[in-house]
Structures are given as C-alpha cells and as structure tokens.
Specification:
The complex is a heterodimer of chains A (440) and B (342). Chain A has 18 helices and nine strands. Chain A is α/β, with parallel strands linked by helices and 440 residues long. In chain A, helix 8 packs parallel to helix 10, helix 9 runs antiparallel to helix 17 and helix 17 packs antiparallel against helix 18. The relative contact order of chain A is 0.15. Chain B contains 14 helices and two strands, in the order H-H-H-E-E-H-H-H-H-H-H-H-H-H-H-H. The longest helix of chain B has 39 residues. At the A-B interface, helix 1, helix 3, helix 11, helix 17 and helix 18 of A face strand 2, helix 6, helix 7 and helix 13 of B. Chain B: It is a multi-pass membrane protein.
C-alpha cells in the first residue's frame, strides 16, 4: 500500500514534469510555427544556398519551380522560409531589413506593403530595373514597386484580377439568371447593380443561404477597381475625401444593411466551413481565391460553382519579390528572382495554383488545371481574368494602407454588419480608428 | 561481509582511540578540502579566489541572460517610449518627451483595453482558482487510478494556446458552432460570441480557464498533500465532516499557496495575449470590431507590430509594467494583512 502510493506519487511527478516539458516544447513549436528559420546562407561544398522568404502559399514549390531551377543550376540550392501569416511576416521582415541582417536572399512583399517598402526601405533593396525587361509586366504592377527616383525594388509575381464566383445551383433555385455572360451584363459597371441582384436573390433564397459572404468582401472588391484609395499621388492621406473609398463604402453598406450577407469574416474557420455547407451564393473572387474555394468546398461544390466577370475591372492582392542588399548572394538571387517571375514560370504557377500572372505575354499560354475547370463549370477563367487584368486602373498605395483598410473593413463595416450600427456610426468608428493609426 | 564490518569497527575504534591524532585530523581536513599549509602560495590564492568567485560564476548565466534579454530591452523600451519611432524607420527617432504617455491617457482605446484586461482577468481568474481548489480537494481523496486523473488534469495545460484557441473558435462560432447549437436546445437565441461584449469576454475567459485550471489544481494538490494527516484525523475525531475539514483545515493550511496562485494568475491575466489574439482570427489584434476583448497586450501588439508605432507601443509596455508593480504592491499589502490576522 505504502509503496504503491509512493510509486504513484513518483509517477505523478514524472507525468507533471513530462507535461510541463511538452507544454514548453509546444510553446516553442508554436512560436516557430511560422516555419521560418534563419538562412544558413553559407556555401557548403561549393554549393550556394539561396533562401527565399515568403508568406502564405506562393506556389513555387508546389509548381516544382525550385526543383527545376536546381536541376538547371547544380551549384544552387534553394530553401524557402514560409511564414503563414502576413501580419507576422511583414514586421519581421521590416526589422531584419533595417538591421541589415537575417534577411533571406529573396524577400517577398505583399501589395499592401509595397508602398511602405518603396517609400521607406528603398535603399535596402537591389535595383532590379536594370536587369530585366520591364515591359514584360503590366505597367501598373511595376509602377507600384518603383521608387520616386526610378528604382525598381521588386519584380511582380502574381496579381489578383477580380471576378465573381457564384453557385449556379443556388441561383437557379432562387429563380435567377444562371448564364455567366448574361449575369455579368446585369451588373456590369457598378457594384451597386450586383447588390441589386442580391436583393432579387434574397426574395426567393434557398433556405439557410445568403447572397454574399460578407460586406467587407464587397468593399474590398469595389475598392480594388478604384484608382484613388487612401492616399493621393503625393503621399498625402485622403481616405476621408476619396471618391473610391466612398463608392466602395456605399456598396458595402447596402450589403450590410439588407440581410443578404452571411456575416462571415474572410479566412476565418467559419468562412471555410460555409464553402463546404453552401452558406452563400456569391463571393468576389480574385484569381488566387479559386484554389481556395476549390479546396474548402471539396467535392460538394464540384460543378456547382461558376465564374462571371466582375462589375468593374479590379485587383485584389498580388505580390512582388525583391532582393535585399543585405543578402550574401545578390547576383545569384537576382538571377533566381528574374527566372521565377518570368512569364513562362508565372504560367506554370497559374497552372498549379491559379495565381494570375502579372506578365501579359503569359496570358495566351495559360492552362488551368483540369480539376479547376470542371469545378467551375468549364468557365473560361483565363479569358475572364486576363480581360480584367488588362483594364485594371493603376492604384495608388500609401505607407499605412494596410492598417487603414483593416480599420474600415474590420471595425467600420463589421460594426454595421454584425452589431446593427448605422452606417454613420460605423464610419465614425472607422474614422476614430484611422486617426489612432495615423497618430492624429 | 563480516570482514568488512570488522574493518569498519576497527577503523572506528582506532579513530576513537586517538582523537585529534595527526593522521585522523589530516584525513578529516582533506575530506573537507581545507587548503594545504603555506598562506600566499599559488594554490591557496587560487583556492580563495575560487571560494569567492565561483558562486558568482554559477549565478552569472542567469544575470547575463537577464541583462541581455530582459534589462537592456526594458531600458531601451523606456527610451523608445519617449520618442516617435516607426517600425518602418527605426533609425529615425524624434524626441517627444511624455507625449506618448499623454496620448495614451487620452485614448479611449487604452482605457477600454485596461478595462477589458481587468474584467477578463476577474472572470477568468476567480472561477479558475475556485474550481482548481475543488478539483484538488477531490483528487486528494483515495481514488482508483488517481494518477490518471491527475495527468488528465494537466493535459489542457500541455496543449498549445494556438491549438486550444482554434478549437474554441469553432465551438463558439456564431453560425453552426456547437455552443450555439446546444443553447438552441434549451431555447436560447444564438449568441454572437465574437462580437457581443460579454459573450466575447466570456468566451476568451473560458479558454483561459480551460487551460489553467488543471495546472493550479495540481499546485493545490501538492500543497494539500503536505498537510499532516493527523490534522484531518483529529478533526474527524472531533466530528468534522468532509466539508468542514475542507473549510477549517485545508483552506487555512493552503493560504500561502492560494496567495501564490493569485499573484501568478493576476500577472498572467494582466499579460493575456495569445487567447484573445487567436480568438479574433483575422485582424485579431483589434480584439473585435468595438475592441470589446482587446486586452492591453493586444493593444500593444496592434500599435507596435500592426500599425508600426513603436514609440506608443513602448509607452503601453511601460504602463503595463507599472500596473504590474501596483498589482504586486497590493498583493504584498494583502499578504501582510493576512499574516497579521493569522
């Protein structure tokens, strides 16, 4: 008896120690689950190791580009350091750039951060403009990564031309037009018309479904088609006077106040689930979202989704890759960056990941995966997206674009949509937040 | 066996027989490590130096690490908090004096965050410690498979914040979450757990409670097992039931432990960060559309790493530090009071 309690006590102590250690380990694992590790940078055994820092899914690895490049260049090894969350990736990259240490040889930059990089980190990046033929890219894409004195700090990777993905079966059940060209014609030119289609949808909506996933997505989509956003050409903040913001805000407010939204937050787990459950009938979808929809809907959505042209040509998202001057292998890194962003490679990434190329010459050769085509009811996606891509206006981004956008969509719009505030109250809340962001 | 015993006996008698005799003394001295004769010799100097310096050398790693990763950042943060520093431009700092602090004092977001930290702290710490006490009491009984129960208590603590929170997010999801589904059965309208003020604070607290209750229970259990069994025996001889024993024997004996857990939990609650951040999902650092569950930790993170205003974030960090000092002082006072009444 006595020995057994002592034994169990020792066991318990052991268990406690084990649990504590796993707790600590789990804590560590969690800290490093952004999966980044510092580059070893060294050239072991005559081989140069190039590291590339990315966030989310860039598709290079998935499309086999690294393997292909390493086969062509036996002296190069490529290592990708992926950080899942952009909001973790960017601050980390900023501090490393300024410390002049710890950066990867190639560093990805999201479009929302590119203005900040251009205006504040210009001298921390190699000028890539001299090494490439800039006319390969869409003009507005290169313009976003070019400093005032003409230095190109990043090469365009993908862009996010916009379309509307919709559930054909739900549209049919609600007694609406299901043909993609006719639908596109119904809402062409104005996101408010799209909202009007939503009103029709809600009249006979299949039980448990809404027209759109969220008001914020309509805001983002509409704003993506406006040239004027939160800053003017000279870098002044104009968010409260901007026509673009007003147009997008008004469209989203129509959604938020009319019960046609499933009130979800994009990229949250419940949003993912709603794809599988068919919780909403439409979502403004940039090209890169097709893969996401396909993955989250699974087989349940196969052949039920379709793609129609968006009301306005708009862009949402996309990235650049730049070569920090702190890197040890700048020459090799520039060569790799150039190769990765060349039209042929961009087309390959599109084939695998549906990230849309920023180089128009690739458009003719785009081949989406067969699975994607069948999933989206054989919609001519390459046609729809390239038409949009060619007419997207040049958008002006500013240093604090990202936090201002968050303030409007995740504070202002969310309050109206989920808490039943009036649009005025929502706007005031967003204004207060933006003033805080800008330190006013 | 016998021979060794005899040898021992012999050595013992020989030592007894010659107390203080030369060889015995020398041997004992050697055993203790007294320096060899000859003061000022190289060896003795080394020895004295060793005596003086070794303890410092042994504790040095902690202080070096504390200096490098604790003290210097702390002071540097204080320096930052008096400047306007942007994350995108760390080299350019402009002196603004106490402006960052003034700015905080007039910021609704700051006071909101302070209030949220307090309310979430209370509704997570109080039930957590009470439950831990109860559970520890139950575990203290002779149970079949008690080890299993104790290990099970610790498992929530061993899960990572991220994993636990993601599961809770699904449970609390507004549309189709399990909790709203259960509420539906008892006829309660679905609660928007993320956007309603009390709902979200309750949800965040529940994650904290789930993770830390078992941990505190084990601390209590350890303290309970140190209580002499005869106290309980005499209590039961006097006719005290389980509950009376718990109230009049266990609780008073646990008082120092309870105080310890209160202090630790209060500090933990003041620094609450991971749970609300991940609970918020995308743009979680805002703590909801009305900042309804934005804690001080989240506010600091939002200012520093999302907005990029490091000066203000540093000011928040220092304010948090001061708040913790105040909390510690209050705890100390209460502690002293309790000791006096005891």
């Amino acid at each position: 008896m006595r020995t057994s309690t002592r034994g169990s006590r020792r066991l318990m102590a052991l268990a406690a120690v084990a649990a504590l250690t796993t707790g600590l380990l789990a804590g560590c694992a969690e800290d490093s689950d952004d999966g980044s590790s510092d580059s070893d940078g060294g050239s072991g055994g005559g081989k140069t190791t190039l590291t590339i820092g990315t966030f989310g899914v860039f598709g290079y690895k998935q499309a086999g580009l690294y393997d292909e490049y390493m086969k062509q260049h036996p002296d190069i090894t490529i290592k990708e350091n992926v950080t899942t969350r952009t909001d973790v990736y960017w601050p980390k990259t900023l501090t490393r750039l300024q410390a002049g240490a710890g950066t990867d040889d190639i560093q990805a930059i999201e479009v929302g951060n590119v203005a900040e990089a251009v205006q504040t980190q210009g001298d921390k990046f190699v000028d890539l403009g001299k090494d490439v033929d800039k006319s390969q890219w869409l003009d507005w894409k290169t313009a976003q990564a070019t400093t005032k004195d003409g230095k190109t700090i990043g090469l365009g990777t993908d862009i996010g031309p916009m379309a509307v993905c919709y559930r054909k079966d739900l549209f049919k059940a609600a007694g609406l037009e299901t043909d993609r060209t006719k639908l596109a014609a119904q809402w062409k030119g104005d996101w408010s018309k799209y909202v009007d289609v939503g009103k029709d949808y809600m009249k006979k909506a299949p039980k448990g479904t809404k027209f759109v996933d969220s008001a914020a997505s309509v805001y983002n989509a509409a704003l993506g088609g406006e040239s004027e956003r939160y800053y003017d050409k000279d870098g002044n903040v104009v968010w409260d006077k901007s026509d673009g913001v007003k147009t997008a805000w008004d469209a989203s407010m129509k959604v938020a106040t009319s019960n046609m939204s499933a009130k979800l937050k994009q990229f949250d787990k419940p949003w993912d689930q709603a794809f599988a459950n068919g919780g909403f009938a439409t979502v403004a979808c940039p090209a890169w979202m097709l893969g996401y929809i396909q993955e989250k809907s699974g087989d349940s959505g196969k052949g039920k989704w379709d793609v129609a042209a968006a009301p306005t040509a708009a862009n949402w998202g996309g990235s650049f890759i730049g070569v920090p001057t702190a890197g040890k292998h700048q020459k090799e890194a520039v060569a790799l960056a150039k190769w990765l962003t060349a039209p042929e490679q961009q087309a390959k990434v599109f084939g695998k990941q549906a990230s849309f190329p920023s180089t128009p010459s690739a458009y003719a050769s785009l081949k989406p995966q067969a699975a994607t085509t069948t999933f989206f009811s054989n919609a001519p996606i390459t046609q729809i997206f390239s038409d949009s891509a060619k007419t997207i206006p040049t958008q002006i981004f500013g240093v604090k674009d990202q936090p201002i956008n968050t303030a409007i969509s995740d504070i202002g719009i969310l309050q109206v949509e989920q808490k039943g505030k009036t649009p005025e109250q929502g706007w005031d809340a967003a204004s207060k937040e933006i003033k805080d962001v800008l330190g006013q | 066996m016998t021979s060794s015993k005899q040898a021992l006996a012999r050595s013992a008698t020989s030592a007894d027989a010659a107390p203080g005799s030369q060889p015995g003394a020398a041997r004992r001295a050697d055993g203790r490590g007294t320096p060899p004769p000859g003061p000022g010799s190289w060896r003795s100097r080394l020895y004295r130096w060793d005596m003086k310096a070794s303890p410092y050398a042994f504790v040095a790693p902690f202080f070096i690490f504390f200096g490098a990763f604790g003290l210097i950042p702390l002071l540097y943060t204080a320096w930052y908090s008096l400047h306007n520093v942007q994350l995108s431009n760390l080299d350019q700092q402009t002196w603004v004096g106490l402006d960052n602090y003034k700015n905080l004092m007039s910021s609704d977001f700051f006071w909101g965050a302070l209030q949220n930290t307090f309310t979430i702290g209370v509704i997570s710490t109080v039930p957590q410690l009470l439950m831990a006490l109860g559970i520890a009491h139950l575990l203290n009984y002779k149970l079949r498979g008690s080890t299993v129960w104790r290990v099970v208590m610790l498992t929530p603590y061993a899960t990572s914040v991220a994993a636990a929170t993601l599961v809770f997010v699904l449970l609390y999801s507004w549309d189709g979450g399990m909790i709203n589904w259960l509420l539906h059965f008892i006829g309660v309208d679905p609660v928007n757990w993320r956007e309603s003020t009390w709902g979200s604070q309750f949800a965040v607290s529940s994650i904290v409670i789930w993770r830390w209750t078992g941990y505190n229970a084990l601390i209590y259990l350890a303290a309970m097992q140190a209580i002499p069994a005869d106290l309980y025996e005499s209590a039961s001889l006097d006719g005290a039931g389980r509950w009376q024993q718990f109230r009049h024997v266990t609780i008073p004996m646990l008082r120092p432990t309870i105080l310890f857990t209160v202090v630790v939990s209060t500090i933990g609650a003041t620094q609450l960060f991971g749970e609300p951040l991940l609970f918020g999902g995308v743009s979680g650092s805002k703590g909801g559309s009305e900042h309804q569950y934005q804690t001080l930790g989240l506010y600091m993170y939002d200012q520093g790493w999302i907005i990029g205003n490091l000066g203000k974030a540093s000011a928040i960090a220092w304010t948090m530090f001061l708040i913790l000092l105040i909390v510690a002082a209050i705890n100390l006072l209460i502690n002293r009071r309790l000791r006096k009444t005891q």
